[in-house]
Amino acid sequence: MYLSLHYVLLFPTGQLGWHRRMLRADVDENAGGDLNDEENPLIEEASTRKRKYVTQMEWFGYRLFPRVEESQHLFKAGKLLQEFIVDAWALTEQSRLNWVKFNQAKLRVESRQGLMDAAAADPTGKSADIGQRIILPSSFSGSTRNMIQNCQDALAINRHFGGPDLFMTVTANPNWPEVKESLGPGETPSDRPDIIVRTFHLKVKQILKDIYTNGIMGRAVARVWTIEFQKRGLPHMHMIIFLHPDDKLRTPEDVDSLLSAEFPDKETQPDLFELVKSLMVHTPCGNDHNNPNSPCIVNDKCSKGFPKQFCDQTTVNTDSYSNLRRRDTGKTYTVGQGASQQEVDNRWVVAYCAYFLWKYRCHINVECVASIKAIKYIYKYVYKGHDRTTM
Question: Measured between alpha carbons, how far is 45 from 55 in angstroms, rounded to an integer?
Answer without folding.
Answer: 10
